Amino acid sequence: MRKLLLPLAALLVCACDFVISTPAGMEIPAPGITDNVVVYDGYTSAYNTSTLIPNWVAYELTEEETHGEVDREDKMFSMDSNFSGRQARREWAREYGKVWVVSGPVIGSNKYGTIGEDRVVVPDAFFKAVMVVSGSLYSAIGFVMGNDSERYYLADCSMSINDLEALTGIDFFPALPDDIEDLVESDYDLSVWSIKQK
Predict the structure, then answer these.
(1) What CATH number does domain 6-193 carry, 3.40.50.300, 3.40.50.11810, 3.30.1180.10, 3.40.570.10?
(2) What are 162-198's pLDDT values in tens digits?
(3) Which of 18, 54, 132, 176 would bridge with 96, disulfide CB 3.0–4.6 Å?
(4) Are 44 and 77 a contacting pair, CB within 8 Å?
């Protein structure tokens, strides 16, 4: 895989210091036809009244928000046997200053059907779309993990954002200028994310 880091469109140069200017709401996907978008303090969600679950939840995690302990166990998403997906997002925010994340369900063939008398859809899998900026360069990656008892390694379920968009029907990171969005979403580099091949 080629290394995919691209120049930022909005880069302000002051002497020898770089100041990155990114649009507010960078993490918000383009609203879909079934999205009822609700903005909360700290995240935005697109609720689907047909499935009775969110189509996606988007948030920006900053380095400042990563301080403190996380005691929840994340058994499903793992970079290696000792590093969970939640820990990964925290580490990426610490390394890059912030990380933009979109998470949600993959309904697929709906092999698990529905639950409860309201018939809430049970997803076949779950996705994450993640983007960071380093200096003047963007990088993005997608993940899909099955809704089952398997333990998933991030390297095994990583993909380009374009592949994730094809699977989910969601347009991720539309706030990027189109030429940059096309390049950032077309490929990914595991080394940017400190993810090792198994």
Answers:
(1) 3.40.570.10
(2) 999 999 999 999 999 999 999 999 999 998 998 887 6
(3) 132
(4) no
